[in-house]
Design goal:
Blueprint (H helix, E strand, L loop, with lengths): L8 E10 L8 E8 L2 E7 L11 E6 L4 E4 L1 E3 L22 E6 L14 H12 L3 H7 L7 H9 L6 E4 L1 E2 H9 L1 H4 L6 H17 L3 E5 L19 H14 L3 E5 L11 H15 L3 E4 L9 H14 L4 E5 L4 E5 L11 H11 L5 H9 L1 H9 L10 H11 L5 E2 L14 H8 L3 H14 L3 E6 L7 H8 L4 E2 L16 H12 L8 H7 L2 H6 L16 E4 L5 E2 L3 E3 L8 E3 L2 E2 L1 E6 L2 E5 L2 E2 L13
Parallel strand pairs: 1-4, 1-5, 6-7, 7-8, 9-10, 10-11, 11-12, 12-13, 13-17
Antiparallel strand pairs: 1-2, 2-3, 5-18, 14-16, 15-16, 18-23, 19-22, 20-21, 23-24, 24-25
Helix pairs in contact: 4-6, 6-7, 7-8, 8-9, 10-11, 14-15
Length: 598
Amino acid sequence: MGSTGGQDYDLKIVDAVIVDGTGADRFTGDIGVKDGLIAALHRHEPGEPGLPGTAAETIDAAGQIVTPGFVDIHAHYDGQATWDELLDPSTSHGVTTIVAGNCGVGFAPVRPGSEAWLIRLMEGVEDIPGTALAEGMTWGWETFPEYLDVLEQRHFSADIGVQVAHGPVRAYAMGERGARNEPATAEDIEAMAVIVKEAIEAGALGFSTSRTVAHRAMGGEPVPGTFAAEDELFGLGRAMAAGGRAVFELAPTGSSGEDIVAPPAEVAWMKRLAEEIGMPVSFALLQVMSAPELWRELMEESKKALEAGIPLYPQVAGRPFGMLTGFTTRNHFSKRPTFLALEARRAAGELTDAAFAAELAKPEVRAAVLAETDEPSDATIPGDSVNMALQRLVGMTYPMAAVPDYEPTPDRTVTAIAADRGQDVLETVYDLMLEDGGKAMLTVPLFNYAGGDHEAIREMLTHPASVFGLADGGAHCAMICDASQPTYLLTHWARDRHRGEQLPLEFVVKKQTADTAALYGLGDRGTLEVGKRADLNVIDLDNLTLHRPRMVRDLPAGGGRMLQDATGYTATVVAGEITRRNGQDTGARPGRLVRGAR
């Protein structure tokens, strides 16, 4: 928008219910924006005089809330940011600042010629189509500072910051030995430390690593750094701290439920690291089915650390964590010959999505698919492992309505529905996925749903040690769309939940604005205060609606990804410019690279 001559403000938002991100009670008032900053904040009672002065544009927000823009600290747009300015699905859900480079995977530094290896690593770990990355990415860098320089030339619909990731650092410094997870020597650690310190000094917001064996490249090999010894982890943590204010982020051992013995030991070394370097350490924390109470132990250890002044923060989600399945993505029949043949025709352009669904609906095709057995599967291949998991977890699979219910009761499982219908469960799965012209989705809540409700999630969100994250925007394109969680915090937790206690609106806004901004030292945003960045949302909360995820094929090379629409966002403003109006992209691109804490 820019400053408009002759006007007191570039933008005024009047008669809004202001939820300022601090956790304080909401109030009625007006906001004046000038030169990308909040220039005035005028509190008044309904009917009283509002903020004086003229504006180039005024939004009447009567009956609506205004919040700070949401700060999403867990995304994977590292490659997408080199070709895509929109950064969806995150920006469709009120996100105005994004932190990428999580979980130890990224694209810098990179040895010339090893670009394809980093793509395979990202594809395997984060389920981002490798063909889309190969076709879409521009590259043009070797070192991490050079990568930031490339991103700095681009304009986005939201600000984006990036962390330096362990996987590419290890492979760059150690070559094949690093990629194969061989132990690092003292010289290796020093070489990696130089890279990490240089990256933080150049503006990386943190350092990330993955220690879960569930994170694997396309060939089945774990992410470089998965088995890093303590001397390596502490050496890189010290290097990060030497470079400046930053966050040490990780997916710890056991975070995917593969090991329920290791997590307490993981928290112990994280606590020691955070104490030594004096920087925040943030780790992914989910409720796992194999040990449904383990998260409490880890939370309490984190709370004790915080009470001792040690910055250790479990990163938690706002809803169950799992997989989506349907005929437009991976599903229970993806390895059956008849389905494979139809999918190949659709992928080749011989069948439109509608024609593909029509074929699947034919009785003879349905009968053939249901009668077949799967082609051989390889559990080390991510796609095959997903198909195998879907078969195994059919008893905890739920259909999704047009407006999804992420806290369904046990009688809504496909197993229960099949019993009511007198069908085999896979028949029911097939028929449910055929609904809505073959676009229907089922959901499998793998994590955070061991009790069949959201009580564990509520405790995680309200725990003083926790920080909200794990939205995974840009990742797991065929499996999830958790980037919609900022909207879900508002619709479910602050308004609609009926199976248990809700959470105050002021709390859920602060949880994803002031708190997430503070973790990464982004003190210029996260609250609505005079002098702060004019990053904000105008939201018709009464009518805010989160719709069912849908598959679109708009990535480079025809790659597919899940998007999830939300209606009720009147406006999203980034640095004073309206980037989305009534849920639609305006074309404004005020977002820039965020270099370092401020």
